[in-house]
Amino acid sequence: MTHFLCLIYLSFAISTVVATTATNDPAKILKRAAKYFGLMTVGSIAVGWLMFLLSP
Amino acid sequence: MKDWEAASARVVSNKAAAAGVFLLAILVPGAGHLYLRRRKKALLLASIIIVTFVLGVHLQGKLFTFEKGQSGSETLINSIGSLAGLGSGILYFIAVGFGLAKGQIDQPTFEIGITFLLSAGLFNILAAVDAYRCSIGYDYDAAEAARLQAQKEKKAKKRARRESSRRDKEHK
């Protein structure tokens, strides 16, 4: 559970920092942060699940 | 396109002052943006960097220091990790000075702690680069428009080249 929460927090932090440092427009920041957060969360959960399935 | 804090923000007059803003931002998370009177951006970035760093220490992560390892690759990893950790600026020196982030390898969260500490440093480097850009009055929208235009032109050139090679083949 700790690992999962850390993963979610890190996805949030990365997406927010990357979006904030790429523009000064708040609407764009919000839109990009949401997009990156969604992509990272879904992607990392999918990869984690795949590794779990493939592990012996 | 709307600038978040265009009314209050300031730019510096020369490159040396911009480099000073960069150094300030590296040394204290959020201070560069604060100096440029971009309070919202400073608050957002500083809070994320500090929370990530504190979580990294709490999760028993280890901060790398410049020390010679048993092998060359260990020394290299130590150096790269130290550079990333140094990005946290004053937080790094406080943690190393007080012996806070020595890391406990037997803890299950040890590696996540390291990830958080390194991420905090890299976030602050990104924030410092942004502070430098803001200080010289970098136009994000114009840069993005130019990048998109360049991409479009590249695609058009590629398409034209493909078209001409296809035509050449048909002639032969």
List keywords for this structure.
heterodimer; A: 56 residues; 2 helices; B: 172 residues; flat
What would you say this structure looks like, in words?
The complex is a heterodimer of chains A (56) and B (172). Chain A is an all-alpha fold and 56 residues long. Chain A has one domain. Chain A is built from two helices and no strands. Chain A has helices at 2-20, 26-54. The longest helix of chain A is centred in the last third of the chain and has 29 residues, at 26-54. The relative contact order of chain A is 0.14. The model of chain A has no long low-confidence stretch (mean pLDDT 90). With 172 residues, chain B is an all-alpha fold. Chain B has two domains: 15-138, no CATH class; 140-172. Chain B is 69% helix and 0% strand. Chain B is flat. The N and C termini of chain B lie far apart (52 Å). In chain B, 34% of the residues are buried. The mean pLDDT of chain B is 88. At the A-B interface, helix 1 and helix 2 of A face helix 3, helix 6 and helix 7 of B.
Compact description:
With 56 residues, chain A is an all-alpha fold. Chain A contains two helices and no strands. In chain B, helix 1 packs antiparallel against helix 6.
Q: With helices defined by DSSP (H or I, 4 residues minimum), what is the helix count of chain A? A: 2
Q: Strand tally of chain B, please?
A: 0
Helix-strand sequence of chain A: HH
For the biggest sheet of chain B, the summary is: none
